[in-house]
Design goal:
Order of helices and strands: HHHH
Radius of gyration: 15 Å
Distance between the termini: 7 Å
Number of helices: 4
Shape: flat
Number of strands: 0
Helix content: over 70%
Strand content: under 5%
Length: 111
Amino acid sequence: MLLTYVYLLIAITAEVIATTSLKATEGFTRLVPTLVTLAGYGISFFFLSLVLRVLPTGIAYAIWTGVGIVLVSVVSWLWLKQSLDLPAIIGLGLILAGVVTVTLFSSSVQH
């Protein structure tokens, strides 16, 4: 089960890198950011497919997207200097709380 979460962490990290790089592609007109984006999504989907061997699709997707949303928002705030107002921060906190609740307490997740 630990390996499943390592794969999920790799999938999330690759997705965050890909999504963060997407802006720099400028509509897929810049080669290097485009290659980073495509490679990141490819790696992310590959490792997510490995996670789906163990975790139910809905649970894996909820964790993958939830953590991804929070991390992309934090990276965008720190690196791209995009602002987050109080409602955005509260919403991101709720997403994170949902991911923690599903991961720790759902009987759908085998511990």
